[in-house]
Fold each of these.
Amino acid sequence: MELLYTSIILRILSNPVANVVQKKLVGTGRDVFRVNFFTYILLGFCCLIYLPLFFNNNYSLKFWEYALIGGFFGAFGNAFLIKALKTGELSVLGPINSYKAVVGLIFGIILLGEIPKIYGLIGMFFVILGSYFVFDTLEEKFTWKIFLRKDVRYRLLALIFTGIEAIFIKKVIVLSSPLASFCVWCWFGALFSFLILFFKSNNVNRKIKPEDISKYILLAVLMGLMQLSTNFVFERMNVGYALSLFQLSTLVSVFLGYRIFHEKEIKKKLVGASIMIFGAILIILQ
C-alpha cells in the first residue's frame, strides 16, 4: 500500500515539473520534436540493461501489439503536449487535462453504450464550469474562439492521444509487469518520436548544445519517474480512478505557472482548476 501512495504522489508532482522543463527548453528555441525524441531515447538506452528480462520471458503477440500501439499514441501525445507548452500558459494547459474525464465519458457513450448516471452528468457540468474560470483569464474568454488557439488545440489532441495510450499501457501491464511495460514504452516511444522528428523537423542532424545536456537528462529523469509511478498505480488501480487522482497535478501546474513563468490571474485559475478536479472525481464515482 505504501508503494501505491508513494507512486501516486510521485506521479502528481513529477508530471507538472517535467512540463516546466519541457516549456523552458522549447521556449528558448529548441525544436519540439527533438525534445520529444531525446526524452525517449535517453530512457530507452537506460532500459537496455533490462533486455535479459525479455529474453527470459516469452511475451505474447498481444503484448507486443499493445506496446506498439501504446508507443504510437504516447509519442504523438507527448509531441502535441510539448507543442502546446511552447506557446501556451502552464496554468491554463494544466487544467485542460481534466477534460480527459469528459472525453472518457463521451467515448463510453459512443463506443460502449455506457449511459452516464447522475454523478457523471453533474461531474461533466463541473468540469465545464471550472474551465469557464480558467478560460476567462484568456483574451478569447469562454467562447468557441478558444479552440482557434493553437496551444489549446494541441493540448486537447495531447489529452486524447495520452488517454488512449493509458488504456494500452494498462493492457501491457496486465500481460507483463510495470517494469516491462516501462521498457517497451521507452523503446517504442523512441521509435515513433524518431519517425516524427525525421518527417516533421528540419533539425534532425543538428547537434545538442552542451548547456542543454543537463536539461535533457533532468527531463528524462522526470519523465521516467512519471511513467514508472503511473505504471505502478495502473497495476493496482482501475485506469479511470487513477486518471482522476492524477488530476491533482492540475493545482501544481497552476502554482508552477505562477511562480516560474509569472502567469497572471492565479486565484481565478486555482478556483477553476479545483472545480474541474471535483467534476472529474464525480465522473469517476458515477
Note: The longest helix spans residues 61-87.
Amino acid sequence: LIRVYTLAEDRSPEEVAAELQEQLGGLAVEVTPSVVRAEDWLASWREQRSVVPLIEGWAVAPPWLAAGLPAGTRAAIIDPGWAFGAGDHATTRDSAILLLRWLRPGDRVLDLGAGSGVLSILARLAGSGPVTAVEIDPIAAREIPRNAALNGVEGVEVAVGDAASIALCERYDLVLLNIGARQARLLRTRCDQVSAEGTRLIVSGLAQWSLEGVVKEYGISGWITHETVLTEQDWATVLMVREALP
C-alpha cells in the first residue's frame, strides 16, 4: 500500500490520481482517491510539547512555554526547528539528568550526534568549558547556533560531519552519545581516541535489551559503568568512566 498526501487545491482527487498512475507506470495497480482535511501540523506539534523537568531547579522548555516556568528555574530553551530533539524524549531527558549530575565546572564536552543542541547548550548553562557539537545533518546543525542564541550561550562549536571520521584533535572530559546502540558500538574506538583516564561518557538511545552488549563493548577499553537509568518506555541510559587505559 502506497499512501500519498498532496496539496492540490486547484485539482480534483481524480486528476491527482491519474497523474500518479502515469508517474508510477506499471507499478500502480489501483488508485483510490480521497480528500483528507488539511491540518496545521506545526500548531498541532507545538500543542503536544511541554516543559521537561530534570533534576531539582532545572528543566528543558520550548520558547513558547518558557515564560510560565517557576521562578528560579534554570532551563535550556530549545526550539528544534528541523532537527531532532525538543528535550522531551526519554533518552534526551535521562542524558540531561546524568549530565547535570556528572558535569564538573570547566569540563571540555564532546556531543556526538548533537541534534538540536539540547545537551550541548545544557552543558554550557551548567558551567562546562567549551563544547564541540558534532552533527551529521547540515540542516539540523544549523539549529544549534540558533538555540544557543536563544539561551545567550557562547562556546558551542558546531562540527558538521560523521562522528566516526570527523577531525577531533583534543581529549574531552565528558562525552555525550545519544544516537542508538548500533552506532554507540561502532563509535567505541572513536570515544577511546578522544578520552583520557577519568573521562566520563554518557551513552543513550539504547533499548534495554541492548544495554549489556554496549557495556561489554566499552569494557574492552577500560570503560566502567557507574550509573544506569532505565525508563518505563524500555530505554536505557548509562554513565561510564574510563578508569584504565590499555
Note: The radius of gyration is 22 Å.
Amino acid sequence: APQAVMQRPYVLAASTHNDEEFQFARLLGAMLKHYGYLLVIAPRHPERRVSILEQLSRLPLKLALRSRNDAISQDTDVYLLDSMGELQSWMAGAALVLIGGSWIPHGGQNILEPARAGKPSIAGPFMHNFAQETLDLVERKAALQLHSATELIAEVEQLIQQPESIAVMGRAAREFMQTKSDVVECYMQALQKIPAFKKALDDGK
C-alpha cells in the first residue's frame, strides 16, 4: 500500500496513455515537489514502462519505479506506478486524481472511480467516453475539466495551496456517488451486457 512506501502527499495521474506521462511530469513534477508533494503516474499499460522511461529521462527529474521497489526520498519528483492491481489503494491515498486518457484524443478513463473514493479529479478536454458523468461531477463542483494540459499548473497549484477546497470537492464527489449509487450500479451492469461497450470498457480501463 502507498502508506508503506511513502510519507509525502501526492497527486495521482491515473490510467495514463502515451504522451500523457511526459506532459504531466513536465508540467507538474518540479512544481509539486516545491510544495512537498509527489507526482505518482500510473500508466494504463505498465508494460509501456521502457518507452515511458525513455520519454521521462529527457526531463531534469528524479524518478522512482514501483517495479524496481525504488525508495521514495524527499528528492523524488515522479513515482512511476508501473504495476498491476494497485491503482485503487493509491487512489484512496491521493490528494487529487488526474484522469488519464483525457489529455489526448482517447476519450478518457472512468471518472466515477476517484469519485467513489471521495477524491476530486481533474479531467482534460477529451472525455467523450464519460461525457455525462464528467458533466455531472463538474456541475456539483466535485471535478474540474480543463481545455488543455497547460492549464494544469495553475489549477493544481491553486488546489494544493488550499487543502480545504480539495476536501470540499472530495466530499461533493462522495455525496454524488452516494445519491447515485443505485443508478450507477444498474448503469454499470447494463453497460457490461452490451458487447461493444464491454469491449470498450476492457480496452479503456
Note: The beta strands are 10-16, 38-43, 63-65, 78-80, 96-99, 121-123, 143-145.
Amino acid sequence: MHLSLRFVIPLAMVLAAIAYAVIPLVDKLTVQWSVRDLDIRSAFVANTVQDSLLELIRAGTRNKMVAFFSRITQDERLFAIGYCSDGSQQQIVATRTLPPGLSCKNIEKFRDPGARVLESPRGLLHVSVQDVEQEGARLGRLVLVHDMSFIQRRSEETKKYLFYFFVGLAAIVSLVTVIIAQLSWRGWMQGFRALLRGEGLLRPAEKINVPELRPLARDLRSLI
C-alpha cells in the first residue's frame, strides 16, 4: 500500500496542477470564441435589417422604428437594439431594454474588439456598433446588444466537464500505476525468493528471468 501511494500521490498532484492551469485557459478561450461568434452575428443582423431601417429613417417615424427593433429583439439572445443618427440630434432611438450606460456619445468605444463586453446587473452583455450607410455615405450607427448569459452557462458546463474529465483521468492512471507497481513488486519478490531457495544460483546469470536480479545473483554466487 505504501509503495502504491508513492506513485499515486505525486501523480495526483501533477494532474491537479495541470487541471488548475488548463481550466481557466479553456474558459478564456470559450469566451473569446463566443465573442467572435457574436461579432459575426451582429454584422449579419445589421446587414439583414439595413434596408428596412433605411425606409424608417427616411420616413422619420421614431415609434415605428422602436416597434421594428422590438420585433427583432424577440430573439432570446438579442437583448436590445438602438440607433444613433449622425445628424445634429444625438438622442438614441432604442428599445426599453437598452442598458442605461449606452448613449450616442459613448458607443464608439465599443468598436474596440477588447471592449465589447459590458457588465450589467443582468450579467455580461456584448455590444456591437455597426454603420448604417446609403450609397457609401454613413447615416448613423446601429447598436446591437446580445445577452451573454448563455456563454456563462456554457463556460460553467465546460469547467464542470473538464473537472470530471481530470478526476476520471486521475482515477484511471492511478489504477494502472498501482497495478503495474504491484505486479513489478510481486515479480521482484518472487525472483528474490527463488534466489534465497537456491534456484538459479547454479545457472548462468544471463538465464535469470528477472534482469534486475542478475547482479544480485552474481554477487550471491561469488559469496557462496
Note: The first helix runs from residue 2 to 59.
